[in-house]
Amino acid sequence: MKRRDVLKAAGLGIAGASTLAMPAIAQATPELKWRMTSSFPKSMDVLYGNGELVAKYVAEATDNKFQIQLFAPGEIVPALQALDAVANNTIEMAHTCSYYYWGKDPAFAFGTAVPFGLNSRMQNAWMYYGGGIELMNEFYAKFGVVGFPAGNTGAQMGGWFRKEINTPEDLKGLKMRIAGFGGAVLQKLGVIPQQIAGGDIYPSLEKGTIDAAEWVGPYDDEKIGFYKVAPYYYYPGFWEGGAYLHAFINKAKYDALPDSYKQALQIATKAATSDMQARYDMVNPPAMKRLAQAGAKLRPFSQQVLSACFDAAQQSYDELNAKNADFKKMYDSMMAYRRDAFLWFQVSEYPADTFLMVQQREGKL
Amino acid sequence: MKRRDVLKAAGLGIAGASTLAMPAIAQATPELKWRMTSSFPKSMDVLYGNGELVAKYVAEATDNKFQIQLFAPGEIVPALQALDAVANNTIEMAHTCSYYYWGKDPAFAFGTAVPFGLNSRMQNAWMYYGGGIELMNEFYAKFGVVGFPAGNTGAQMGGWFRKEINTPEDLKGLKMRIAGFGGAVLQKLGVIPQQIAGGDIYPSLEKGTIDAAEWVGPYDDEKIGFYKVAPYYYYPGFWEGGAYLHAFINKAKYDALPDSYKQALQIATKAATSDMQARYDMVNPPAMKRLAQAGAKLRPFSQQVLSACFDAAQQSYDELNAKNADFKKMYDSMMAYRRDAFLWFQVSEYPADTFLMVQQREGKL
Hints:
Two copies of one chain form a homodimer.
Chain A: H1 3-12, H2 25-28, E1 32-38, H3 45-61, E2 66-71, H4 82-87, E3 93-96, H5 120-129, H6 132-140, E4 145-152, E5 159-161, E6 175-177, H7 180-187, E7 192-194, H8 198-207, E8 212-213, H9 218-224, E9 232-235, E10 244-250, H10 251-255, H11 259-294, E11 297-300, H12 303-323, H13 325-344, H14 349-361
Parallel strand pairs in A: 1-2, 1-3, 6-7, 6-8, 9-11
Antiparallel strand pairs in A: 3-10, 4-10, 5-8, 5-9
Pfam families (chains A, B): DctP (PF03480)
InterPro entries (chains A, B): DctP_fam, SBP_TakP-like, TakP/all3028, TAT_signal, TRAP_DctP_sf
GO molecular function (chains A, B): metal ion binding; organic acid binding
């Protein structure tokens, strides 16, 4: 056993983790029991459940030797302290969103979604084949963590509003529960972003303490019942056109893993990312129909509103690029792809979808 | 060891494959060396390469104990005999397309793509969370194979035409290299579908033996150089809006695998499916730009042409549903989802994409 491997193995707290020199199976595949804290309440079964899938796939890929136990927010670590808990080794892993940590550094936003960014297919292209994972991990390393996408919601909804929003002027003074980068962009148009924990959103909307709130999409939003207190359901959620969840792993712990376990984590998170999108795409359509029947009033943001928000987003990008080199590096990489991707998707995907959407409206599907 | 497990193990040709009673690791994770024949030429690196990814991920998930060696078409089995070779146990696995076997039974088409069917995200929703995999495998079992999606191209292009196609009349008498269900639909409009092997398409177009040919999309099509002999590059390829490749496995061999290896195959194929879409979404945009610069003339099929094809497809569906119960079962399941999916995608995904496509055209991205 090489000295380097002994050190790695010591880091793992197990007898031997070499994948190089030792023939015995037990050493290449040590028994590990890790803990992963989730930022998502158990009631959000697709979000929380994706953490369970990651754990299940890792266990399956390692013949149950690498076990990851998932904990709900607050059981060990509060929801939004997940990244810190992983960084300081309180817990080995977290299932959370990178952009929750936007306050530490705005560059965290690129790990989830940025305003007027990529759709979920494009996110996968950029992350897995456009250098995204490598760029993000250069950055995450500064915080002592390794991160992989672990779930994608697709384009989220714009949220629930107590009154209609027709022009950018209607946004002025609006108290809206919206976090991070999306909130910062809307703030430029006069919105007053509110940070409100999940369970408090509904009563705040009901009392009128806030005027609007964004959450996820029909399937998750239906559970909270927003439509009863803020009936206007706007789309699209342009600040998260394809929002990733992330699995964060303590970097020292990750680096000490046998290669086969590193691979297991990567394959498991990739498969789970595909699963979440597929699952949302299956459960959102009927949820949206139920919401519409229950009285939700679906409204598209007007082109005028979207254009004002797009300009505000560009202003935010310019400001952040000017003062944050990490942010600019990711921005340049993602936006170069965005230009090409939104050209290409006009060619075959969009006309194919458009034609079938027209048939749907005409009752021919 | 239970008798059933002894039988299973005998089927594998190894000493012990029980995942139930035997504690020793060597028996839960036997060393297996399988062979997989590809239907895709090595020159099509994304298609062929996805078979390599499946093998790589399975090896990684089993600590290199379950090895799958990939063979190019013709090395062991000709491209389009892949399914038969797996069914009759000439080889353990194939990486191919389900719809290549449409001639055996049209229901094979649902494993890849059907005309005016689902886009690739919807395909994943239906397959993984809409009962698709279960339905397909009930059907595949009749042929002695188990199948999992293993790659998706996204919406393909409509192909290369020597002259413009403006109305359905322009399709009459057109000799087009197009296979399977898409060919059968176009035949109703007067197209004469041609079955031509990959390497012969270009010379056939050059000589004018055929008038048109469909292949995959910009990245793959560019390699063949179609634009030099048939410059009109039509879209969308409405007969394959999100075309899956499949990994087929001999059913007796699959059934005898330890559970952990079955899971490894499922996770590996799911991750590889995500990879192929991501990879195509990264390499197609620049390829399309290069093709346009080289002289390819991009053309959308007119609404009139698409509508005529849609009606012809519906006629084919009606005919096949009337005489093929397996076909109808899959059709009913997929099309119920299609109705809801193309409604839901109009809500957030489509307006988000549309807005950014408009910005792209206006040079703002």
